[in-house]
TrEMBL record:
Pfam families: DUF4202. The lineage of its organism: Bacteria, Pseudomonadati, Bacteroidota, Sphingobacteriia, Sphingobacteriales. This is DUF4202 domain-containing protein.
Amino acid sequence: MSLSEKLIQAFAAFDAYNANDPNKETFEGKEYPKEVLYAVRMTEQLNKYEPNAPDYVQLAARSQHIGRWESPRSSFPMDRKGYLMWRTQLYSHHASIAEKILTECGFDIQTIEKVKFLLQKKQLAQNPDTQLLEDVICLVFVHYYLDHFAAEHEDEKIVDILQKTIRKMTPKAVQATLQIPMTTKVRELIMKAAN
């Protein structure tokens, strides 16, 4: 089986797992399991932003939120410490599911370990592959989720979140953000955060 065939097989397996997500999101009149839609958006954004990304980055992007609903935020204390515990646990959860699926798809140990490394956000800002994945995550957030998120929270909180988001991005990704179609309100919040 060629690498491209294995990638397609892995994407299908990731999507099949995420199809169990009870949370739904409607996009362009069609309802999707939330994490299936997120995974497709990650792949599309990666292909647009870095079309020659290595296979292990493509696999990490597609499985970035795999099984996310199985570890709800509400199962951890609703404070900063609880949030960080939840995120750390999620990284391991995603990596564990991805490892099982990739093993079943016949990927080699080296590729699987690279995917797990990326899903656990190791060496952010030092490792170019981890940074690439983070850039794509931030671009997907701005493109598809920021407008709705901004409508539910105070501007001050959104600006603070955007400042933290921008600090995690490369200059190339920040520039790519400005090419994303967005409402005037969201653009104003981004410009405020960037200054």
